[in-house]
Amino acid sequence: MGYVEDDEFAGKSNKQILQIREEKMKDQDVTVDLLLHSVKRQQGIAVAIGEETDHQIGLLDELDDKVGKQSVKIKNTTKRVDKVEQKSSTTCLWITICLLLLALIGVVVAAVETK
């Protein structure tokens, strides 16, 4: 059983074999050049993706910082609103108590004067 090359080169002169091998090497060189170009292009794309990713990470970090600061402000504002709400509900109760007390005093005074 012979090699494929043996069958391919059977009956050919050394010069013909050399020419066939040189043509194969040229074809391989073209293929390697195409592969090299493709790899360089892929490398460029990978570098661009990496740079864009770094940029996006920076933007996300900045956004995270701003959201964190706003979250703290919202919590503080919510606490203040809760305090105002508690004070206002207590204030309304005291005003209602005072008005009812005045009304009661008015009713008592009116009852005493009518006797």
The secondary-structure element order is: HH
Low-confidence stretches: none
Calculate Rg over CA atoms.
46 Å
Number of β-strand runs: 0
Q: What is the residue-averaged pLDDT?
A: 90
The best one-word shape is rod-shaped
- The amount of beta strand, in percent, is under 5%
| Largest β sheet strand count, sense and barrel closure | none
Structural class: mainly alpha
Helix content: over 70%
Q: Compute the number of helices.
A: 2
Terminal CA distance: 141 Å
Features:
transmembrane helix; 2 helices; transmembrane; T_SNARE_dom; t-SNARE coiled-coil homology domain-containing protein; 115 residues; membrane; mainly alpha
Would you give an account of this structure?
It is a single chain. By secondary structure, the protein is an all-alpha fold. It has a domain at 4-82. Helix content is 93%, strand content 0%. It contains two helices and no strands. The longest helix has 101 residues, at 14-114. The radius of gyration is 46 Å and the shape is rod-shaped.
